[in-house]
Here is the input.
Amino acid sequence: MVQYFNKFLTNQQNISSEILTVEGDFDAARLEVLVSCMHQSGMDIVSESNITGSAVVINQCDKSSYCEMLTKNGRARMFSTTARGLTVSRNEAIRRSNAEICLLCDDDEVFEEDYESGILKAYDKLSDADVIIFKMTNRKPSFKDKIQRLRFPKTMRVSSWQISFRRESLLKSGVRFDELLGAGSGNGAEEELKFLCDCEKAGLRIYYVPFKIAFVGHSGSTWFNGYDEKFFYNRGSTTRYILGAFTASLYALYYVVKKREKYKGSISFACALKAIFKGIKDNKIYKLSKQGS
Here is the structure.
């Protein structure tokens, strides 16, 4: 099936009116790349990322403004905002998009030349797919090289830049990114796992397609500061929030043993285990969610 497929592929207010004049009428794009970035002074990120089609760029900075530009095959629209948080940015991009299919993107990706056609053909072929996870050019694959349905726990291996979805499926299901998670939240990451778990709970069908869409850079993380107590505490806290106490506890034991070679120079096994279980016990994010409800 893969061989056949590979052959077949051969809340922002007061926005100012700083709009770059673009000639021509634009229908809703089939595919839009949803870019989350910060402190961009212009729209260079579009060409630097090799975005050749349509895009929605959410630029978190110190002003509110709007601009747009033509690309080779579409239009890129940048919304600058003073809001903060990666998941806030993701949700704003979903709200601003008018495309049939959306693809998540960070500011350190460079797309393959044929990313548009490959993604669209994948959705045409998998007509029942609501979410499709793609392959990254320079990252070790997490799945076998074949088209397959993904369910938990396989979705724990997915990174946000692999995720695409039918926008209408998301709108109908009510699934969005949880704004208590992700960079800028202070609660650690795992926002993509929560998103995919929520998609699965809502009955959305998730597929993996081994089509390479982009290179991912190695820019510094805005939330990862090393394997310290805070990291393990947040890991316990996020997994408890997403998976529940029992599954999170099993995962904690697995994680602390599995990742020992990576963190042993920074924190002891005992301290890592203590911190991750303290995060599970405190259940901080769940309590925050109840305060906001």
